[in-house]
């Protein structure tokens, strides 16, 4: 089996702190995935660290488990980490995930010198990774897209659509009101919220009309942007402009928006799509939404696609 | 004007290092947005730090500009940062962005004690933020979604569609081959790549069929997931299974996939959609793609929506 573990004499000679990251022989993995071993166990449990194995052959180390982080010298951590990495590589682990509370960030540079790099960080914690196996890292990336949503609010009685001019842009182009989704916010809810915040108009989500993907999006911290335009139905009509974000806001004739050059290419395209739907039936342009329970208990997801005729929706084996 | 700056006597008495982060009076902002001032300039430029003002009223500090980071004591940095924050708040700045190279991570905990939190981190750099103004932070979030793409590869001559069974799942459900997009990778290219990697089949992107949004997606590090299924046309037909990812792979009768229970709800839904399109015209189900030049010079974006009739596509004012 991989890794014979430490000899009793070796254990006694090691400074206590160096046992922090003693690798665990794979054969001693218990059902929870926690590593157990005779010699290493005492050192690790005394310091608090308990590396966890995942089902892809990686290891997770959480510095939040350190009982007395203030008393751990970076140099001691460096030596332990170096020894552990060598051992883990020998034992066939493919990667190490290192989770660091923000107040223990002094250990990050130590890990970086051993080859760790930032995977992601948010709020009060950072996650670093080290690929141990051959070749390129096969670890999954962190989130790559921000999601922006706009609402095309069409008053079918007047044929007018709600448009705004951004305050912060150089060119005064008419656009649909919209903005970035909050973390955990559904597409339709972003549209309702942004329309209301920018214009004071209350509306309801009807369908998804378009998706635009752009990489290296300015303002997206080097990441990508998914910009989604939704068809909305208004339930109020009196504009109350948010001066902070918008220069102007009005109900504009949809046919006029579809032809004007005082707009962006994407707004023009979707205005034309919306006009087509307005004149010949929204069923021709809509992606409608259905909600499903996820296989992950307790979570739901929303699925958007072209409406299915009933006979196809209700097919059975 | 806000902030009178430092007196000559005050400047001489300050330790050199403490001038690192001397705030700049707003009136001395030059056209590049860089802050300039008589007294503070010498200290800042000696240490290398040059806070930059952005157009939203925030400040950016880059520790990569430190000339001798090793000689800067964390305690000195703490005092300077504390004084600077007080000054910047007085001067009306709304936020501070602190960019830290991974090897200078020992300054992160210092910043955190002053209220900074991680905004994001990747590779060899972390970005932290501190909201200075009243109320909740209005700073934009980092990326919130990973993007997964699957390809529904339909052989229109046989009516068979390419399906796989995942190796790593407990239940052997038939699905379309797919996987996570690489950073910067277009949706259609992910579909082509993943289909090929998992099955050995070469295919071409035809259209977008569905979008599924799920929050708190397992494996997405607490973030959200956008799962997109594309309609693909095969240009090769001999399966070469990737054993690492897939248990099985076959060309299955589309009508059978649409009715079987040995699949996931989303695969079943899209199989039925695909069958509807196969029988009554793909134009009924497709979201087609058009490419546009972005207003951001040199960049392009792909826009997906229902196909527009020509007379609507070519409307002019």
- Can you count the beta strands of chain A? 14
Assign the CATH architecture of the largest domain in chain A: Alpha-Beta Complex
Low-confidence stretches of chain A: 1-43
- CATH C-level of the largest domain in chain A: Alpha Beta
Strand content of chain A: 25-35%
Protein name (chains A, B): Nucleoside diphosphate-linked moiety X motif 6
Organism (chains A, B): Podarcis muralis
Pfam family, one (chains A, B): NUDIX
Subcellular location (chains A, B): Cytoplasm; Nucleus; Mitochondrion
Write the layout of secondary structure elements.
The structure is a homodimer of 317-residue chains.
Chain A: H1 8-13, H2 38-47, E1 52-53, E2 58-62, H3 74-90, E3 95-101, H4 106-113, E4 117-122, E5 125-131, E6 145-155, E7 160-166, E8 174-175, E9 178-180, H5 187-199, E10 203-214, E11 224-234, E12 246-253, H6 254-259, H7 265-280, E13 288-293, E14 300-305, H8 310-313
Parallel strand pairs in A: 2-3, 6-11
Antiparallel strand pairs in A: 1-2, 3-5, 4-5, 6-7, 6-9, 7-8, 7-12, 10-11, 13-14
Helix pairs in contact in A: 3-4
Overview of the structural elements:
The structure is a homodimer of 317-residue chains. Chain A has 317 residues and is an alpha+beta fold. The first copy, chain A, folds into two domains: 115 residues, 3-Layer(aba) Sandwich (Aminopeptidase), CATH 3.40.630.30; 141 residues, Alpha-Beta Complex (Nucleoside Triphosphate Pyrophosphohydrolase), CATH 3.90.79.10. Chain A contains eight helices and 14 strands. In chain A, the strands form three sheets. In chain A, strands 6, 7, 8, 9, 10, 11 and 12 form a seven-stranded mixed sheet that branches. In chain A, a hairpin with a 7-residue loop joins strand 7 and strand 8. Chain A is elongated and about 75 Å long. The two termini of chain A are 49 Å apart. The N terminus of chain A is likely disordered. Chains A and B meet through helix 4, strand 4, strand 5, strand 6 and strand 10 of A and helix 4, strand 4, strand 5, strand 6 and strand 10 of B. Strand 14 of chain A pairs antiparallel with strand 10 of chain B.
């Amino acid at each position: 089996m991989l890794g014979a573990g430490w000899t009793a004499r070796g254990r006694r000679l090691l400074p206590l702190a160096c046992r922090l990251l003693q690798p665990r022989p794979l054969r001693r993995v218990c059902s929870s995935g926690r590593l157990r071993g005779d010699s290493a166990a005492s050192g690790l449990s005394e310091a608090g660290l308990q590396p966890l194995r995942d089902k892809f052959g990686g290891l997770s180390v959480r510095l939040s488990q350190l009982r007395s982080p203030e008393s751990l010298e970076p140099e001691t951590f460096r030596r332990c980490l170096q020894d552990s990495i060598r051992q883990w590589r020998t034992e066939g682990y493919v990667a190490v995930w290192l989770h660091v509370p923000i107040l223990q960030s002094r250990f990050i540079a130590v890990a970086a010198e051993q080859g760790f790099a930032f995977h992601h960080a948010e709020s009060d914690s950072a996650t670093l990774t080290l690929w141990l196996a051959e070749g390129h890292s096969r670890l999954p990336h962190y989130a790559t897209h921000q999601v922006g949503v706009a609402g095309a609010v069409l008053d079918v009685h007047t044929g007018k659509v709600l448009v705004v001019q951004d305050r912060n842009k150089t060119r005064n182009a008419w656009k649909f009101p919209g903005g970035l989704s909050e973390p955990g916010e559904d597409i339709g809810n972003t549209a309702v919220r942004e329309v209301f915040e920018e214009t004071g108009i209350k509306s309801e989500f009807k369908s998804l009309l378009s998706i635009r993907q752009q990489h290296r999006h300015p303002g997206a911290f080097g990441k990508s942007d998914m910009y989604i335009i939704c068809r909305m139905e208004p339930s109020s009509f009196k504009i109350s402009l948010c001066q902070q974000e918008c220069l102007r806001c009005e109900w504009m004739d949809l046919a006029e928006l579809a032809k004007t050059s005082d707009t962006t290419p994407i707004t023009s395209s979707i205005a034309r799509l919306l006009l087509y739907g307005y004149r010949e039936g929204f069923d021709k342009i809509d992606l409608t939404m259905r909600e499903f329970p996820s296989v992950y208990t307790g979570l739901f997801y929303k699925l958007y696609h072209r409406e299915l005729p009933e006979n196809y929706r209700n097919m059975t084996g």
